[in-house]
Amino acid sequence: MEIKEKIYRICFNLSFLCIPAIIAMLILGYGGQIGILVVVFFVLMAIGIRGFPKLKGFSFTVWVFASVSLAMFYPSLITEVRGFNTERLIVPLIQIIMFGMGTSLSLKDFAGIVKMPKAVGVGLVCQYTIMPLVGVSLALSFGFPPEIAAGVVLIGSSPSGVASNVMAFLAKGNLALSVTLTAVATLLAPLATPFLMQLFAGQFVPIDFYTMMVSIFKMVIFPIIAGLIFNRIFRGKAKWLHDAMPMISMAGIVIIIGVITAAGRDNLLTIGLLLILAAMIHNAAGYFFGYWGCRLIGMDEKSCRTIALEVGMQNGGLASGIAVEMGRAATMGLAPAVFGPWMNISGSFLANWWRDRSEGFTDEETENAE
What we know:
Elements: H1 3-27, H2 35-48, H3 59-73, H4 76-79, E1 80-81, E2 84-85, H5 90-103, H6 112-115, H7 117-127, H8 130-142, H9 146-156, H10 163-170, H11 175-201, H12 209-233, H13 239-263, H14 265-296, H15 301-312, H16 316-325, H17 334-355
Antiparallel strand pairs: 1-2
Helix pairs in contact: 1-2, 2-3, 3-13, 5-12, 5-13, 7-11, 7-14, 7-15, 8-9, 8-14, 9-11, 9-17, 10-11, 10-15, 10-17, 11-12, 11-15, 12-16, 13-17, 14-15, 14-17, 16-17
């Protein structure tokens, strides 16, 4: 067994030793001191499960739980570091993530619009109708405070993220369609997201269409264009960057979720369970309506799976950045912070469930109707 594999196994085993220690402290009345053990448990588990092929795909999600645990137990360690307000990190981190997305794209990725116009059109319509409508319905049904409600609408009005491409690959969906939908939906976000927010969230908080549009251009479009240019100039010459960007992006998302959670900790303690329930319903509705809507109009199985994942999984990082730009990280930013981890958990399970039921699928992408 390699040294790396031994380290994974040791960390995995050590993580389980934290569980009886946490239970003992709770029984003895030291519940206020279990924070460090909970954080250590998730950190060791995130490292340890990488030694198990069927589980290592959940490593990122467990890192998110480690970040959330640290933020909930020790928010002061995260919200400010030596006088520096960590919320100021969120927008630059999103720009780095979007730059990484740009480096992984090329102009041919947008050719899917010509090759698969029906699938792309259906996916975009589903993305920007189902999720904001479900979001505003949940916000009103749950009676969230205005800024929290606006955050629920915000995550529903955001485009899909790169995670949906990974899930589409795992689910044996149409990967080319997934990448095209993510890219096009993201490019439409500067207009679509402010419009939907003004339409549905304007009843909760004031929405400045122009200011939000400029913020999204700054956070998303310019970094993606820079990434595309970089990829064009250094194509094949910066393999180290392509290898590093997924890890950098995941680390950035973990930090963003931690910062948002720490900033909104008090609100989460009050309405956290309701937000989690809203996240589950919102996410499940995206998968359900995305998949069955496509089935009803006769699309192939691969495309149905792909569009379901694209619709159900939003770009939580972008939504968090918009909340920060609006000065409402501790309120509007909470829904993206809660919805994001859940989308990765549910997406992983759904993708693996579909993959196990893909007998007879070929490796080639299924052609879509024009």
